[in-house]
Amino acid sequence: MSRKNKSKLSELFSRHGLRCTKQRVALYEALQEARTHPTADELYRSLCDHVPAMSLATVYNTLEAFCDVGLAHKMPGTGVNGSARYDADRGDEHLHVRCRVSGKISDIPDDMSRKILDAIPEELLEQIEQQMGYKIDQVRIELVGENKQAISEMGAPEHESERQKRRRRKCLDTTDPEYQKGLAAAMNPVVPRMTPDTDRSKLPRG
């Protein structure tokens, strides 16, 4: 690690009220460089040879400290592993896609992330703010599906019958018609067209 990078991290930690220690620097560097959104255990195994004094408990506690001050984001685990995954705050708005079977999380390319975010109507966000009393300053979206490569690496069968796929998906995901109906409504909200003459008292309230 260069002195320049250590100095930058020292300033970053100081701004967020954290002491700059060798272990924190090593862990945050590893988290910044990772594009696999690693678990605490994966980070520990990648660092234990280089930072012998670092324990698994230290990794967990340090990651939680990073999340508490906004230097990292914790994503609940899914899939076979089930462990939470972590993502360093890169200072941009990028989206994720998750494999529901393996738990693997990947960054959606920045240009595609921007297209998705730009498609959200500003008036919808304003309506949410007005009705729910929030000031929205960030939008996070996670897409969920099945990654063929990740499933293959787990030793899953390369070819499944349609019946096997239906059974596996039923175990892994909600297929209730009411759930699907609610999901469709959430993904395709009906946004009232507003003009200067719109009677806001008649707008739907959540």
Main features:
globular, two-stranded antiparallel sheet, three-stranded mixed β-sheet, Dna Ligase, domain 1, 2 domains, mainly alpha
Describe this structure in words.
Residues 150-206 are annotated as: Disordered. Its cofactor is Mn(2+); Fe(2+); Zn(2+). Helices cover 46% and strands 9% of the residues. It is mainly alpha-helical and 206 residues long. It has two domains: 1-90, Arc Repressor Mutant, subunit A, CATH 1.10.10; 92-147, Dna Ligase, domain 1 (2-Layer Sandwich), CATH 3.30.1490. A three-stranded mixed sheet has the order 4-3-5, with no helix packed on it. A two-stranded antiparallel ribbon has the order 1-2. A hairpin with a 5-residue loop joins strand 3 (96-99) and strand 4. The protein is globular, with a radius of gyration of 21 Å.
Give the distance, in angstroms, between the N- and C-terminal Cα atoms: 51 Å
How many separate helices?
Answer: 9
Largest sheet: 3 strands, mixed
* Rg, alpha carbons: 21 Å
Report the CATH topology name of the largest domain: Arc Repressor Mutant, subunit A
Binding site for Zn(2+): 99
Pfam family, one: FUR
Protein name: Peroxide-responsive repressor PerR
Binding site for Fe cation: 122
